[in-house]
Automatic annotation (TrEMBL), chain A:
Cofactor: FAD
The keyword Cell membrane belongs to this UniProt entry's keyword annotation: no
Entry keyword annotation includes Ubl conjugation: no
Occurrences of domain Acyl-CoA oxidase/dehydrogenase middle (ranges): 122-218
Segments forming domain Acyl-CoA dehydrogenase/oxidase C-terminal: 235-379
Organism superkingdom: Archaea
Family annotation (Pfam families): Acyl-CoA_dh_1, Acyl-CoA_dh_M, Acyl-CoA_dh_N
Protein name per UniProt: Acyl-CoA dehydrogenase family protein
InterPro entries registered for this protein in UniProt: Acyl-CoA_DH_CS (IPR006089), Acyl-CoA_Oxase/DH_mid-dom (IPR006091), Acyl-CoA_Oxase/DH_mid-dom_sf (IPR046373), AcylCo_DH-like_C (IPR036250), AcylCo_DH/oxidase_C (IPR009075), AcylCoA_DH/ox_N (IPR013786), AcylCoA_DH/ox_N_sf (IPR037069), AcylCoA_DH/oxidase_NM_dom_sf (IPR009100)
Family per record: Belongs to the acyl-CoA dehydrogenase family.
Length: 383, 266
């Protein structure tokens, strides 16, 4: 067993942190308040290769492992989750193209994303389809050599800034079994009949773009089908280990940022003639926050490492996602508490962490769904 | 093939509050980082290589330091340097203080081995702040030199570096230096890049050779200097803050008057 990071991994972590502190921190509050996508930061991040680090070198990426990517996500989220998501999710959906796409699709879609010229998204959720993914009602019908897509997707990250989306569609309404008859189809945002409307007023990660997408007879060529027709559900499930581990990493990052901010503030702030870090009540909070963050980190790194070993880790990935997101929410809460009134306004980053943390318990499968999965695996029940 | 040698140092960084133990700062308060000025020197070298053609310019870094500083050296490699040399051995390890003379002798030997067209060093190192190594090296190897360079335009055909350098009191000098030359690079000359993820990946495979004094044809006498560290203390700091009240119209001229009086502006 080896818990150490390699020199290369330590270097990645330090350089990403340097980037985040210099380029993200100074503008974090502004983008949060304005609720706009940080195009300029995304561009700088692309120069450094932070857009799609796991994309193979031959397609313009850095070819990094899931564990390496986890370290990157953690450092970015420790500084500002909204901008961090705008960077780390700029290749959302590309994992499907990487795994199941044709050579032509990889060249056309992966490279521009890795270079920061394009932004992608994954469109699964719908107004009436959230936790129950099998109820997707967006359809794609074959017409000659084209797919015709109709339906509405909801809560889509990068919705109004994305250049293309990997859209989960029902392609065979007559298929037997709840999980059959779906396909993943790439829809470019400049196709006729595509429209996106930004969703504003989010609690947190306000720099990240979220939108409702409407597909009204959108025609795309048949080459835009990713992988096997009608088999998208199985395809999609293969990434849950990876994407849930990524959200766990987001949680660890938020917890780390909140821990650091709280530790610093507790040493600076004085009451009753001494730093508040001298009070045992505060010391215990700090001890608990750091311990739980480290536990979440270990669970997340193990999950990432297992994904890299090619193991199937449904249960472990759900454990990491559920636990790390809960730790993020709890630790951010305690960080605000340690800041007192100063934590209740946006002069300090903990106010943002507190709002931003919550999303990690909702997207990529809610906390309840993760627990259902863990229990299902424990009890040996199938899908 | 043109060769640019960049001197790279890992410097000690210190926290805002620290304790001094004898002639050293307690380890607990120390960190390490790439010397800020060297970051600009590396960037300048890499930009030269990018402008002329990466296959036609060899950017080599040289560092005097223990194995611990290899991570900092890899940072320079990740930013685009082609290979690195690190000089260290037990003699250097045991030396109390490496003064400018010792560093000059070591770097002189490296310059003789490498035969670079251009040597870029930082103006100073953030921890020792001698501000002398680059110029002293130029003297030792008998190269042309320019110190505190904040703009550089290289004419490879003409073997000339046109530089702008900072003098005191806000005065700058434009001058041409013929190659081979040593330039000490000032912060602000460029905007140092972040090491890219690809760069970090490739840096792991770049050559980093370790040389002992003996490999460079030197013996332990190079570390014998006249300089001794006899004490360390926090300088008395006197704060001298002036607060101007009022709108920009009045305060701007008050500020200008003070700056003129202190000799900052012309
Ligand atoms: C900011 C943001 C970004 C997003 N980005 C994307 C994106 O890029 N792409 C995308 O496709 N989607 C995205 N989503 C959607 C997200 O994945 C869904 O919101 C999430 O899956 C939950 O679905 P829902 O909102 O419909 O909640 P519901 O499924 O309606 O759940 C409501 C509540 O019921 C609980 N519940 C539901 N079913 C069960 C059950 N079987 N057992 C126990 N409890 C249950 C849930 O846990 C939850 O507490 C995003 C959402 C947000 C808010």
């Amino acid at each position: 067993m080896d818990f150490g990071l390699s020199d290369e991994q330590r270097q990645i972590r330090e350089e990403v942190r340097r980037f985040a502190e210099n380029e993200i921190e100074p503008v974090a509050q502004e983008y949060d308040v304005e609720e706009t996508f940080p195009h300029d930061v995304h561009e700088k991040a692309a120069e450094m290769g932070l857009t799609g680090p796991y994309i193979p070198i031959e397609y313009g990426g850095a070819g990094y492992s899931i564990l390496d990517t986890t370290l990157i996500v953690e450092e970015l989220f420790a500084v500002d989750p909204g901008i961090a998501l705008s960077i780390s999710a700029s290749s959302f959906g590309c994992e499907a193209i990487m795994e199941f796409g044709t050579e032509d699709q990889k060249e056309r879609f992966l490279e521009p994303v890795a270079l920061g010229e394009k932004i992608s998204g994954a469109a699964i959720s719908e107004p009436d389809t959230g936790s129950d993914v099998s109820s997707v009602s967006t359809t794609a019908e074959k017409d000659g050599d084209e797919w015709v897509v109709n339906g509405t997707k909801m809560w889509i990250t990068n919705g109004t800034v994305g250049d293309f989306f990997v859209v989960l569609c029902k392609t065979n309404p007559d298929a037997e079994g709840r999980y059959n008859g779906f396909s993943q189809i790439i829809v470019e945002s400049d196709r006729d009949g595509f429209s996106a409307e930004k969703i504003t007023g989010k609690l947190g990660i306000r720099a990240s773009d979220t939108a409702e997408l409407v597909f009204d007879d959108v025609r795309v060529p048949e080459e835009n089908l990713v992988g096997t027709r009608d088999a998208a559900f199985l395809q999609q499930m293969q990434f849950f280990d990876q994407t849930r581990t990524a959200v766990a990493a987001q949680g660890v990052g938020i917890a780390k940022g909140a821990c650091e901010a709280a530790l610093e503030y507790a040493q600076d702030r004085e009451q009753f003639g001494k730093p508040i870090s001298e009070f045992q009540a505060i010391q215990h909070k700090l001890a608990d926050m750091h311990t739980r963050t480290e536990a979440a980190r270990m669970l997340t790194y193990k999950s990432a490492w297992k994904v890299d070993q090619g193991e199937d880790i449904t249960q472990l990935a759900s454990m990491a996602k559920e636990y790390a997101s809960r730790v993020a929410v709890d630790v951010a809460d305690e960080a605000v508490q340690i800041h007192g009134g100063a934590g209740y306004v946006n002069d300090f980053p903990v106010e943002r962490f507190y709002r931003d943390a919550k999303i990690t318990q909702i997207y990529e499968g809610t906390t309840e769904i993760q627990k259902n999965i863990i229990a299902r695996e424990l009890l040996g029940k199938g899908l | 093939m043109m060769k640019v040698l960049v001197t790279v140092k890992e410097v000690a960084t210190v926290e805002d509050e620290f304790e001094i133990e004898g002639t050293a700062i307690d380890e607990r308060y120390l960190g390490a980082d790439l010397n800020e000025w060297d970051d600009y020197a590396i960037e300048e070298a890499v930009q030269i290589a990018e402008a002329i053609g990466e296959d036609e310019v060899d950017v080599v870094t040289v560092t005097i330091g223990p194995e611990d500083c290899e991570q900092t050296i890899r940072q320079a490699l990740a930013k685009g340097a082609d290979r690195a040399i690190r000089v260290w051995d037990d003699t250097l390890e045991d030396a109390d203080l490496l003064d400018v003379g010792a560093k000059t002798a070591i770097l002189e030997a490296v310059v003789e081995d490498e035969d670079p067209d251009l040597v870029l060093s930082g103006v100073q190192s953030g921890d020792d702040s001698f501000m002398a190594t680059g110029v002293s090296l130029a003297d030792a190897v008998d190269f042309q030199w320019a110190a505190v360079v904040n703009s550089l335009d290289l004419d490879v055909e003409g073997d000339t570096a046109s530089v702008r350098r900072e003098l005191e009191g806000g005065v700058e000098e434009l001058t041409d230096v013929s190659l081979p030359a040593v330039l000490t690079i000032q912060t602000g000359i460029n905007e140092p890049r972040y090491a890219s993820l690809r760069g970090i990946r490739m840096a792991q495979r770049k050559e980093l050779t370790v040389q002992r004094l003996a490999d460079l044809g030197l013996d332990s006498s190079v570390v014998e200097g006249d300089l001794r560290l006899t004490g360390m203390s926090v300088p008395e700091s006197e704060s001298d803050a002036t607060v101007f009240a009022g709108g920009p119209e009045e305060t701007a001229s008050e500020l200008a008057a003070i700056l003129r009086e202190k000799g900052v502006g012309q």
